[in-house]
């Protein structure tokens, strides 16, 4: 229902993806410790994410992925996610169309090569939002 936008207001609860990246940082280009405040360009350009069966996958630019509103979600409207809602973990990224909000997230990888994206392969804009 949310391919090109939001069809309802939802309260997501989860961890900011940027906070997770701070705790489990990717390798930097310079080899120096991660510094999201001062050396954002030191990170890989993209993140690729997929479901456990790899049937659905999205690509994100790192700046959008690390936006302060991007969450790894485990609750919706104060209740644990159900299977239909993307349990156990899904992505909520309000600065993108709903097509980027991958459910049942299992794999996340950093890359400097733009990763494949399910809906971009079907004619939608790869960035699908801001």
Description:
With 130 residues, the chain is mainly beta. The chain is built from two helices and seven strands. The protein has helices at residues 17-23, 62-65, and strands spanning 12-16, 46-50, 57-61, 71-76, 79-80, 90-92, 107-111. A hairpin with a 2-residue loop joins β4 and β5. The longest helix is centred in the N-terminal third of the chain and has 7 residues, at 17-23.
| Strand runs, count | 7
The 3D shape can be described as globular
Mean pLDDT: 90
How many helices does DSSP assign? 2
Spell out the helices and strands N to C. EHEEHEEEE
Gyration radius, rounded: 14 Å
- Structural class call reads mainly beta
Quick take:
The chain has two helices and seven strands. With 130 residues, the protein is mainly β.
Features of the shown structure:
single chain; 130 residues; mainly beta; four-stranded antiparallel β-sheet; 7 strands; 8% helix; 24% strand
């Amino acid at each position: 229902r949310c391919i090109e936008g939001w069809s309802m207001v939802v309260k997501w609860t989860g961890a900011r993806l940027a906070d997770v990246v701070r705790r489990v940082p990717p390798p930097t280009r310079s080899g120096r410790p991660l510094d999201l405040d001062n050396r954002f360009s030191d990170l890989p350009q993209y993140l690729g994410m997929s479901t456990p069966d790899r049937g659905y996958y999205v690509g994100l630019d790192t700046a959008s992925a690390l936006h302060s509103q991007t969450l790894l979600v485990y609750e919706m409207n104060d209740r644990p996610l159900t299977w239909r809602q993307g349990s156990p973990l899904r992505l909520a990224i309000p600065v993108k169309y709903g097509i980027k909000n991958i459910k049942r997230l299992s794999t996340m990888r950093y890359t400097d090569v733009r990763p494949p994206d399910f809906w971009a392969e079907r004619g939608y804009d790869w960035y699908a939002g801001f």
